[in-house]
Amino acid sequence: MIRALTRYFRRCGRDLARFVAAQQAATAVEFAIIAPVFLAVLLAIFQVSIFLFVQQSLQNAAMQAGRLFMTGQAQGLSQSAFKNQICQNYLPSVFNCNSLILIVQSYPSFAGANTSKPALYNNGQPITTWAYSPGTQGQIMVVQLVYPWSVISGPLGFSLSNLPNNAAEMMGVTAFRVEPY
Description:
With about 180 residues, this protein is an alpha+beta fold. It has one domain. Helices cover about 40% and strands about 20% of the residues. A three-stranded antiparallel beta sheet has the order 1-4-5. A two-stranded antiparallel sheet has the order 2-3. Strand 2 (about 120) and strand 3 (about 125) form a beta hairpin.
């Protein structure tokens, strides 16, 4: 009985030593352990990079739109005509113009100007009408471009979405005083 037990433990010891010394599939096993985390981090980096690029494009478009109002070139345009001009001239093609929200408001002073993000939903229903008040000479204006950007949820629970339907609200805003024109 003891001899059989001794042979058994020797055999297990040899098998264990062979297993520890084996190197044939070590790289594949290590990759299988690391790959999901690596791919998840890579996906998150790509998504954040694209989001920040598009956010900066939206901010640049808001600044260009503000310049048109500041110099008196857009005061006579309707909200839809001005929105089309922004989409055609200042936004890259990754934006869907139908989803772009344009808010233009005028104020008597900088202290009273509101640059906070607008509510896009009221009791779960999307808001469809927005303020459009082009200012006159000397008034303070705030131009806001808001866009619900579709995002993909990451494999490890990473998500940029803060709106329904897996969308993230991004906004470009500019405030200025209308010049005499």
